[in-house]
Amino acid sequence: MKAAKIIKLLDNWTPRYLVDKWDNTGFQIGDPEVKIRKILIALDLDRRVLEKALEIDANMIITHHPIIFTPLKSLNKLSYKESLIYDIIKEDIVVYNAHTNLDMANGGVNDTLAKILGIKNPRLLKPIYEENLYKLVVFVPNSHRDLILQVLGDEGAGYIGNYSHCTYNVEGIGTFMPHLGANPYLGTVNQLEKVEETRIETIVEEKDLKKVINAMIKAHPYEEVAYDIYKLANRGKEFGYGRIGEIEEIYLDEYLKIIKEKLDTEYLTVYGNRDKTIKTVALCGGSGASFIKDAFLNKADVYITGDIKYHDAQYGDELGLTIVDAGHFHTEKVILPVIKEYLERNIKGTIEIEIYQESSPPYIVV
Ligand SMILES: [Zn+2]
User: Fold this and answer.
1) What angle do helix axes 47-56 and 80-90 make, rounded to 10 degrees?
2) How far is the CA of 309 from the centre of ligand 1 (A)?
3) For a 10 Å CB count at each end of the chain, is N or C smaller?
4) Residues of the chain with pLDDT under 70
């Protein structure tokens, strides 16, 4: 399988429009035409990960953190990052990463963390992006109506709640006059034609719009397809950072034990009041200090994240919010098996996929 196909699969799950403004992530290094033999998944791409990829003959590396974040000013062997990229290119390895888009995606970092920590009905802690919705209207000769209905639905148009292929159809008369140079499916040059047609209307999410239109034009019998696209004011799906939801009421100290076990970490740093029972839990994988206020405003009893600094903790204390710092690494590494499962489900066993097991946070607690 070519790299391009795997990149497309990953882009479908973690679409470009979920990449935050300050972020730089996606397909970063390599040739999309390269045939992938094996994939290595890691949180970061450092020299050890590259060596592991070479050792197991993996020619694609997928990470959560981008290897190219700040702009490169040179690509020589004089510094760590540039030298690493130089060697990756020389080895013809493809590098893909999904960062903020994987944080926000359905089933991404935060959904996974919420699931692991037993949070029921997780909601967004900080909505960032609302998907745009479009109304697509197309005029089809009745002979091709069923085909077009099928194609539209199969490509993702007409999703309303748990229903797919939703459309509305009105029959009418379409008119046209082919001119010289036209190659009409039906009709004669310079004669006004009347055709029994159906006006099909359906709703399309922004992420599907391009592929729905392409497939519709391909399946439509006319040389020039008549269709309209309207941007809707209806609310689309929301995406964002962090999650908040409920657990069975439990004494905080008991829940801390569960966090340690589920995230496979020996240490947690706890800020604020520990002597309480909790029910509403907010979380954000990685570095979530900027959402302390959101956790407070959403009435969380505890906020679990990583990278809490001294003054963040003071702010949480002022708000009366208990914060648990479970570490950037431990709150994000939970996504690695999920990436593996997603690829295995979609690639269907044709490429071997391995998770880099030797990774650790860049520090130890002594
Ligand atoms: Zn991170």
Assistant:
1) 20
2) 15
3) C
4) none
